[in-house]
Automatic annotation (TrEMBL):
It comes from Flavobacterium agri. InterPro entries: TraB/PrgY/GumN_fam, YbaP-like. Pfam families: TraB_PrgY_gumN. Keywords: Signal. This is TraB/GumN family protein. PANTHER family: CYTOPLASMIC PROTEIN, CYTOPLASMIC PROTEIN-RELATED. Residues 1-20 form the signal peptide. The keyword Signal applies. The lineage of its organism: Bacteria, Pseudomonadati, Bacteroidota, Flavobacteriia, Flavobacteriales.
Amino acid sequence: MKKYLLFASLLAFASLNAQALEKSLLWKISGNGLTQPSYLYGTIHLTCDATLEPSAVKAMEQTQQLYLELDMDDPSIQSAMMSAMVMTGGQKMTELAKPEDVKIVSDYLQKNLGMPLEMMNPVKPIFVSMMFLTKLLDCPIQSVEENLMKLSAAQKEEVFGLETVQEQMATLDAVPYKEQMAELVKSAKSDLENDKKETKMLADLYKAKDIEGMLKAARESENVTTSKYENELLTKRNKNWIPKIEKIAKEKPTFFGVGAAHLAGDNGVIKLLRKQGFKVEAVK
């Protein structure tokens, strides 16, 4: 009888853990010793409309500090990013692809950015790809993080980061330079066709607050830097954040804003916090 009850309990736990999360961007964190709740909010880095939903604004008012993935108002962040852009070992982009593909990329850069590949030869290809982010949506790009920071400043509250620039840039280095270059070549050859399609799909999923759908889309992306390296880009970072979130939330009620793809899944921030004993519930 005891074995049956244990098996039934394990089955119920597994079933609960496998359940899809609700469609919500804002989640309330309570329990596990917290005297006041903190909040977890899924952000998106590229959007046409970064307007914060009223429930998020209210949650910001009820907390005392803002934590993003990075401390975006740190004056040293730009120089730190610049130093992380150069490939190690003196490698060059012209050495990472066939001459004909290198020419395609160089022509594309000249046409769209006004500079040939040789000017950016030592730069990691993934950073060159990022230079085209503003072309991926047919609208002026807005930032959810920027709006959160503005609201935090209006409330005279501090902004902090869950990780350093160096830590975040190190996750990108998990993607080999040749694979980064292959993705840049694909983008140049197609004139960003697939990049635009996937960005639009993610924007639509975000608008629908479908965090499970966003994780699924990342896993199925044709861009291998997204689909192949989930462990480095999402899972490891999520697990690194959990003890930090626990410590921070116990010290002061906090609003945490991280990319929405980090929220869902068994290794997402929501279920990892629940495993630590926190109550994490969707805010409608």
